[in-house]
Design goal:
heterodimer, A: alpha/beta, Rossmann fold, four-stranded parallel β-sheet, globular, B: mainly alpha, 2 helices, rod-shaped
């Protein structure tokens, strides 16, 4: 995978504000990941926010230090996703709960990504858990928006990186799989442009 | 490309996935298969749309 830095803020002995701010400035995409505690992030993350995300750093010094970086949230919950909607047992949406974090991101002129919610992971079947793991990896490194085009590009890049580690396969078998996948992607693009041409003809 | 190519591709990926000892490799191939199935569905829809538009009698 592309360069991903995992930084556990609750594990820090002491928060070095300059160091934390520098780490944020080095990133292209900043993702807060946490379990949902009473409709919010745990106290450890809030404490880190209050110390590191100073007014000056976010917008006050005029430098827009985080401008155009992407901001994502990964949140896990033991409740089913269907509960988090108006009329559901929780009667509040995940987006509503995440509003304060997004407000900071907006203030910093960041690009807000949709929340990646993991609900009741232990209830998922093995294949669903596997799918979720890769969806999560895509959330970390795939280009946005999450379109089929970007998904295909991500798989092409990652397949090329990973197939050397596959068991019981050979180079040519993997190459055939990759080439066929790319061919399908190109067929889709070809069909789309054909449809665009026909549509143009219909309008004339 | 023929519809059967996409089905064949999904089968190849599934077979390869089952041979993987590492969880992450297996997971990657499971998700790649999902992406291929998405390609297959989309190809079918778009081919149908091309046919539908070409046979639109109002344009004859």
């Amino acid at each position: 995978m592309l360069d991903v830095v995992w930084h556990h803020v609750e594990g820090l002995e002491k928060i070095d504000v300059n160091k934390e701010q520098k780490l944020l400035m080095e990133a292209d995409r900043i993702i807060f990941q946490f379990p949902l505690y009473w409709y919010a992030a745990p106290a450890g993350l809030k404490d880190w926010e209050d110390k590191v995300l100073t007014r000056n750093f976010i917008y006050g010094d005029g430098n827009d230090n985080l401008m155009d970086k992407e901001f994502g949230i990964v949140v896990t919950t033991g409740m089913p996703l269907k509960d988090f909607q108006r009329g559901g047992s929780e009667n509040i949406t995940i987006d509503q709960m995440m509003a304060p974090l997004r407000a900071i991101a907006d203030r910093a002129k960041m690009r807000v990504l949709p929340v990646f919610t993991i609900a009741q992971f232990q209830y998922l079947k093995e294949n669903q858990q596997m799918q979720l793991l890769i969806d999560y990896q895509r959330y970390l490194t795939q280009k946005y928006p999450n379109s089929l085009k970007h998904r295909q590009e991500w798989f092409i890049r990652e397949f090329s990186d990973r197939f050397k580690n596959f068991d019981e396969t050979n180079y040519s078998e993997c190459e055939t799989i990759l080439d066929t996948f790319i061919q399908q992607k190109e067929d889709l693009e070809q069909l789309r442009s054909t449809i665009d041409l026909i549509k143009q003809g219909e309008e004339d | 490309m023929e519809e059967s190519t996409g089905i064949w591709l999904a089968e190849q990926i599934e077979a390869l996935s089952k041979k993987q000892k590492e969880y992450e490799n297996r997971a990657f191939l499971v998700a790649l298969k999902t992406a291929v199935e998405e390609q297959n569905d989309r190809l079918k829809l778009l081919k149908g749309e091309v046919d539908g538009r070409l046979w639109n009698h109002e344009q004859w």
